[in-house]
Design brief:
Elements lengths: L1 H7 L3 E8 L9 E6 L4 H7 L1 E9 L4 H18 L6 H22 L7 E10 L2 E7 L3 E6 L2 E4 L6 H7 L30 E6 L6 E5 L1 H4 L4 H10 L2 H14 L6 E8 L26 H19 L3 H34 L8 E4 L4 H20 L6 H16 L3 H20 L18
Antiparallel strand pairs: 1-10, 2-3, 3-4, 4-5, 5-8, 6-7, 6-9, 7-11, 9-10
Helix pairs in contact: 3-4, 7-8, 8-13, 9-10, 11-13, 12-13
Length: 436
């Protein structure tokens, strides 16, 4: 994995983090990243990113999400000659079947399931295969878009048009999902895309442990201000600071340029593969050759009509061979022109603004107070320096830099707390009571 990360590091930066949260005893989330082995592999299958959030008592949810991550990534890669859309659908359905079968085989695992959101970064764009309420976002130029539809009771009711966003009755739980892998023998998988990819785009996959605690605008602000490695840590910290009631998994991938692998050998550089060309079966060549020889023989025996018919048969075989050989071209072009799904489903302006900075300031003030109240031994001078730089940048009108320093101040304090002696009563994650 480290070698592949290096292969693509000049054009793709990604980071992943999964955390148990503050109120759960085990982590039922899973994630997987499968980068293309080389340029040819990227042209065929692209990069795969996946987040799964398991459900079920005991270790059932943890098992379900792990099975989804392992099975989907493996089955998808084992079908190099199928279209990506066909391959990812087959992989998701295969995972559903295996999780359901495993759940039916044991009372402890009965009814287990998992949400699954898979991002395929392909030459034609970003494709998503999605079941459940884990989400996929795209940040681009100060705007964040949710590319997936939550399969939840709240979203399904809103989709009927009976309720506006803020008019749902209070008794309707926001945690009821309507679709997942595993509980049922069949499942409907949503395909979304392909969405165009531009340099600078950042894609984010997350479980609802993040999206239920951190607003879309805040997610976009973090993605726009910090590189993926810092962004995933800050987002997990924000979710934990706001109670961390669930497992939190965040995966961020930033596009730095066209996806061209760093060639390990000179002849790999610049290699492009637009479509798999099927080999012509030797039997077809035999038929074509036999038809030609037969036509010559018939012509020599004074049967020109039969000779023409024989040549026609050979020509038909040649046409069939070409159709077979290049059928994949038309199929590939056809699916690339087709658009799946109706996303984006939500779009928010997340450019650094006074309102977003005020929310960060509120978090920092409460964090500073909590650290003082619990007498946590942190480097207060360094923390104060972050706050001063943020205040100076804001006063100068540089809201982006102010947001960046504020976010790094949060990350600094949380890293300091994590670095303390686990046996100390003062160590650990501080929870803040945050207003919605």
């Amino acid at each position: 994995m480290d070698q592949l990360r290096t292969t693509w590091s000049h054009c793709l930066e990604h980071a992943e983090l999964s955390d148990v949260g503050r109120q759960r005893v085990n982590n039922q989330d899973s994630f997987v990243v499968t980068l293309a082995d080389n340029q040819t592999d990227f042209e065929r299958r692209g990069h795969l990113f996946l987040v799964a959030d398991g459900m079920g008592a005991h270790a059932a949810g943890e098992l379900a999400s792990k099975m989804a991550a392992d099975i989907i990534s493996l089955v998808y890669r084992k079908a190099p000659n199928r279209l990506p859309t066909e391959a990812i659908l087959a992989a998701m359905i295969n995972a559903n079947h295996q999780i359901h079968t495993r759940g039916q085989a044991s009372p402890d695992f009965h009814g287990m399931g998992t949400t699954t959101t898979t991002l395929l970064m392909l030459p034609c764009g970003a494709m998503l295969a999605h079941v459940g309420d884990s989400r996929a976002y795209r940040w681009r130029k100060g705007r964040v878009e949710q590319l997936t539809f939550d399969h939840s009771l709240v979203w399904e009711m809103r989709a009927t048009g009976q309720f506006a966003n803020n008019e749902l009755p209070g008794y309707i739980s926001r945690n009821i999902i309507t679709r997942s892998l595993g509980p049922h023998p069949a499942v409907k998988v949503d395909l979304e895309g392909p969405h165009p990819i531009e340099n600078g785009d950042t894609f984010l996959l997350c479980s609802d442990g993040l999206s239920n605690q951190v607003q879309d605008e805040e997610i976009g602000l973090v993605l726009g201000c910090l590189p993926p490695e810092e962004a995933v840590r800050v987002l997990v910290d924000l979710a934990n600071l706001r109670g961390g009631p669930d497992n939190i998994t965040v995966l961020a991938a930033k596009v730095l340029g066209p996806q061209v692998a760093q060639a390990s050998q000179p002849d790999e550089a610049g290699h492009e593969l637009t479509v798999d060309v099927r080999p012509i079966h030797p039997a077809i060549w035999t038929v074509i050759g036999a038809a030609f020889v037969l036509a010559v023989g018939l012509l020599g025996l004074g049967h020109p009509l039969y000779a023409v018919l024989s040549l026609a048969a050979g020509g038909a075989a040649a046409v069939a061979a070409m159709v077979h050989r290049y059928l994949g071209v038309s199929r590939r072009l056809s699916w690339q022109r087709r658009r799946f799904g109706r996303g984006p489903y939500v779009a928010r302006d997340c450019s650094p603004s006074p309102a977003l900075l005020d929310r960060l300031d509120e978090t920092l003030q409460q964090l500073e107070k909590a650290v003082a109240d619990e007498r946590c031994p942190i480097d207060r001078d360094a923390f104060a320096a972050f706050l001063q730089r943020a205040a100076t940048a804001r006063q100068a009108g540089n809201l982006g830099e102010a947001a960046r320093e504020s976010l790094r101040a949060i990350l600094f304090v949380m890293d300091q707390l994590r670095g303390q002696d686990p046996s100390s009563d003062d160590s650990g994650v501080i929870g803040l009571e945050m207003a919605d």
